[in-house]
Design brief:
The complex is a heterodimer of chains A (about 120) and B (about 110). Chain A has about 120 residues and is mostly beta strands. Chain A contains no helices and eleven strands. Chain A is globular, with a radius of gyration of 13 Å. With about 110 residues, chain B is mainly β. Chain B is about 0% helix and about 50% strand. In chain B, strands 2, 4, 5, 6, 9, 10 and 11 form a seven-stranded mixed sheet that branches. Chain B has a four-stranded antiparallel sheet with strand order 1-3-8-7, with no helix packed on it. Chain B is globular and about 35 Å long. The N and C termini of chain B lie far apart (about 35 Å). Classes of the chains: A mainly beta (about 120), B mainly beta (about 110).
């Protein structure tokens, strides 16, 4: 059974930093591209960042480029999102999502970790 | 960025009736379109990919159609568990989502 378990969310002040983690199990993590997708309270879904299998390529939405860094540790089956210079508009539930082998849609999602940016 | 526009924002349907949801892309995405269902407090669940292929375990009452810029998700006979928010997502380019259609009980 595929499982994605996010952690690391919390309350942080504007300008602060946070690192999210996503522990994966039930599939060959090293062979899968992964993404972070966020959902602001009461709003829709927004893709944030993706990383290829092996970690050689990373991609970011314009809204987070230069502030967020995605990475992975295949030895630990874990995906990360380092978030710096956080803004109020980054407040959201952050989901870890697994891509299919071939395409950039998401066949499995975690339950999310909540990030609140507020003073 | 490819902008995805869903309509209507809210759809009121009686159980057993048919629901038709629309999704339009600002430029062609070929058949690189997925649909997700999200219930309150839950993560999204993949329903359809490739515009018309049901994901594993998805009931046959869910069907997708379209290509290019116009797409439709049809739920042939709404069950109580189908009342939820539905999102389309294109993956012809970096993923973008529509704003969602809420299917509510009439």
């Amino acid at each position: 059974e595929v499982q994605l378990l996010e952690s690391g969310g919390g309350l942080v002040q504007p300008g602060g930093s946070l690192r999210l983690s996503c522990a994966a199990s039930g599939f060959t993590f090293s062979s899968s591209a992964m993404s972070w997708v966020r959902q602001a309270p009461g709003k829709g879904l927004e893709w944030v960042s993706a990383i290829s299998s092996g970690g050689g390529s990373t991609y970011y939405a314009e809204s987070v480029k230069g502030r967020f860094t995605i990475s992975r540790d295949d030895s630990k089956n874990t995906l990360y999102l380092q978030m710096n210079s956080l803004r109020a508009e980054d407040t959201a539930l952050y989901y870890c999502a697994k891509h299919t082998i071939v395409d950039y849609y998401f066949d499995y999602w975690g339950q999310g970790t909540l990030v609140t940016v507020s003073s | 960025e490819i902008v995805m526009t869903q309509s209507p924002a809210t759809l009121s349907v009686s159980p057993g009736e048919r629901a038709t949801l629309s999704c339009r892309a600002s430029q062609s995405v070929s058949s690189n379109l997925a649909w997700y269902q999200q219930k309150p407090g839950q993560a999204p669940r993949l329903l359809i990919y490739g515009a018309s292929t049901r994901a594993t375990g998805i009931p046959a009452r869910f069907s997708g159609s379209g290509s290019g810029t116009e797409f439709t998700l049809t739920i042939s006979s709404l069950q109580s568990e189908d009342f939820a928010v539905y999102y389309c997502q294109q993956y012809n380019n970096w993923p973008t989502f529509g704003q969602g259609t809420k299917v509510e009980i009439k």
